[in-house]
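User
New here, help please:
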Amino acid sequence: MRRGIGLLAVGLLLAGCAGTPRAAPALDGGGGAIDGPLKVVVRGLAPGEQAVVWARTTDDRGRLWTSWGVFAADRGGRVDIATQSPTSGSYTGVDPTGLLWSMRLPSGEPVSDPFAVVRGPELGLTIGVDVGGRTLAQSPVAVQLHTPGVRSVPIAEAGLVGDLHLPPGPGPHPGVILLGGSDGGRPDPGLGRFLAGKGFAVLGLAYFGLPGLPPALERIPVEYGTRAVDWLRTRPDVSDGPVGVVGLSRGGEFALLLGAFSPDVGAVASVVGSGVVFPGATPTASSWTHAGAELPPLTTDFAGIPPALLFSATRGRPVRFVDTQGTTATPEQLDHAAIPVERNNAAYLLVSGERDEMWPSQRLLDVAARRLGDRAEHVVQPGAGHFILGVPNLPTSYTSAVPLVPEVFWAAGGGAPQANAAATADTVRRVVELFREEL
């Protein structure tokens, strides 16, 4: 009996020396809107303790995206991504959106599409915290990609092809036309819904590459776009005031043309666009016509893609198309092909990337800025590349170079993921402000 009591006492003593198991840290996560901060706070850590805070999502193609940061808990045993910088991870610096835009695919997974594909109204995340290689807490978080109640309707009427994105409520709402780039087809529906959530009736207008439209970006009538402006203004859910136009890349070029030739366009945002007309799929033909005549395109002594660029492509290096896209054009050649943006009294926002490697957007938009004078604001996004118009804070990990032929041929977009993310958020904010002020 005494021996049993002694063993029990020893057991209790040893248990007391081992200490009680520590409580799991508390994880507080909140999503909100995609253009706002992501809230992630961890409590209950030891002061100075290293913790990995991570985020994961699976897009509509079944691909896993993940981001992470290693943080040292403050003196209160707390980590707050809104005020603390990770010591390492998928992003640097204090950034409450860093866990969103820095998401990437698992190492070694082929990048067939550089963007996370999310068609629903929310981005569903799992937020977690690891300590010592073990996950101690995790929580689901929903981030709204657009305002609830936004409606999208496919359009195929009056010779127009696209998607109409409408805000909640009957309206009438200010009208906006959204134009995509040289990939053709319908422009980014996610961006269309995001802008609709800001109160605009957005027509995402396709202008080539779909049934009923020209097969390639060549000899596109500017009147196709002006007809879209007229169609939008006559809808009962759209106000009959001036229409805004926003376009990316070649769509930014088209946006400037609509600003020049449609008196009902009151605001134009050209993002990494061109103030000069570029050739079409055939180098000797223009991309655009007006009143049945080709608009004079930029003509240079370009004789094809240099062999050095093709050699880079065969070695898996991204091709810098900027080297073939008018960097050597003379001022006289640029002036000959300039879009007559001064014809209209619209307000203009011109946005270029300081490190655009797709084409020299800063130089090309300077042509429009000089012709417009005080009516244009030309913003050069620092350190940014070509892909800087989209839903804010979605992953930009693969926007510095995008796959044209997966695992074979990459095109350089330029910039770094962090700079491209910051530029995208700032550009979209400026576009919304422009349209709210002018429409």
About this structure: The chain has nine helices and 22 strands. Residues 151-438 form a domain with the Rossmann fold fold (CATH 3.40.50.1820). Residues 286 and 294 are 6 Å apart (CA to CA).
